Predict the 3D structure of the following.
Amino acid sequence: MDRAQKEQVVEELGQIFESSGVVVVAHYEGMTVAHMQDLRARMREAGGSVRVAKNKLAKIALEGKPCASIADYLTGMTVLTYSEDPVAAARIADKYAKDNDRFVILGGAMGDQALDPAGVKAVASMPSREELIAQIVSCIGAPASNIAGAIGAPASNIASILTTLEEREAA
């Protein structure tokens, strides 16, 4: 690899470290090509990516980045999994580590926050962005659906509700 290629790799890695919601660093020693392809496919399906790069170039790319603290994890045969969604890469990496004992999570970063392996597990257990949006929408929509249900109820139910309200006011 000549100097121009190395500079290009450092620039690409720098973009990854800046734009990713989460970056997970793991050892992959002893994994077969089929295992790596499986990991890449799972990560791609979740909206993330996998990158293997020389540790020295990754450390250079980390200089001045918010997640520079993960440089300590870059020793040995390391692989980077990352995604814009702050949960996707951590979730897939954690699940893959459970299925494959040769894939060992060392740590990672979420923004400027360094994560140890337990931190990566904690991030992996969080709901994804889409799940959070769905929960918020359901909370907002619940009162409206309750009103619609009450209005759409049979006339006897509405009459009993009105009778109960009258009795409360009279009391």
